[in-house]
Amino acid sequence: MEEKISRKKKMARTTNVQAEAEAAFPAAVVAVAEAAVPPAAGLLTDDIIVDILSRLPARSVHRFKCVSPSWRDLIADPAHRKKLPHALAGFLYNTYNRGNPRLHDFHFANVSAGAAPPVDPSLPFLPPDKYPSVDPCLLFLPPDEYAYVPQLDTCNGLLLCLAYMAPSSPSVDEDEQLDSHYVVCNPATERWVDLPPHPKVPLGGHITARLAFDPAASSHFHVFQFAKANEEDCITGVDIYSSRTRAWNRKESRLIEKFSLYFGLAGVFFRGMLHLLGWLHPMNHNEDAVLVAVDVEGQVWKTIRVPSGGLSFGKIGLSQGCLHYATTPFAVVDRDNNNIKKKKKKQKEEEDTSLATKIASVWCMKDYDSKEWVLKHTVSDYELRSITTVNYKVAAIHPDCDTIFLDSCDVDTLASFDMQRRKFHHILQLEKNRAWQFLPYVPLFSDSFAGADGQ
Question: pTM of the full predicted structure?
Fold first, then answer.
């Protein structure tokens, strides 16, 4: 009798494990896992397995490398990686050039498991006879055709740069506006395209340029240029470049509200619309932070309120198919930058649940049409300080899981925090004297990049 009961329990446990596996993975994935058993392995060709894997999130594909050496080699094969989704490789960021603080040097922070960084920030594949000074070490060396090529934005594997032409004479006033044009490139395939000259902005004007590209929808990309004559002005419209028409097109804002955009923050291209973090005029620090969204035709404009709760440093991101918004209170950022000592006692800090004690609050918009944000996770100052004494602020949101990236200005480190498991991980040391930019990069090995000139 005991033996029968034991067998029943064992069968129940086996059934439960199978049920959990089927609930966690699509039926196609279970079929592939079963095909990994030697007798059934020959029933599926590599092309069929790759086709199944191509329909899964990047994080799942990355995990399947551990199934067996043959699966690992199959996924890593250059012939197949064009079809498979890829995980976050790292971040492009900049530092102030020591010789000229008005210029930036560019770096790549590798957060992937690979030993070699997948991106060389000097972009060596651009032709040296045309872009001899892409490497920051060679800035303004005559007779270069282009003097300076800053990196502005990334979107689904593509990188947007702005190429400044070298002055015609060394005696040119350094405040004189240099001719420039945008360059869009794919660092993974070393292909690029030069855009025609962009609409001019008055000397001293402010430009925010962002890239929109979704290889799952189209091989064409768009570049958005928002401009204003001075800092006090509002954004009145946008100039949009389309790789399909190979031309710039001016579109006036269709919003009733007057708005401006935060400088240097990455945007999100989602549902055919570019989303950028901005604020409404006149500015009310507690209530008027918004997402400004515009489609690639410049016909549809809308604003989405973001969660308020005092002065905070916000970041937007696309994670697990939904818009996310993360904030760090300015009090934490100021303390990070200025190394201000905390004045509150530890006991009071434990009890205080106000926004000022949160290192990060993360909201998710599960239903995009409702425009409603749901508080997903929080990380308190007290919780993080039980792990590390370093002050951190939110740098980015992981695209595939409930993890945020944190950076610290006082010790120049990049870390991650798994908000599900409550685990902190120090990743690497960043370069000193960092500027504002922090761009996520996911490699794109596909050739679906319209208008590319590079070979």
Answer: 0.77
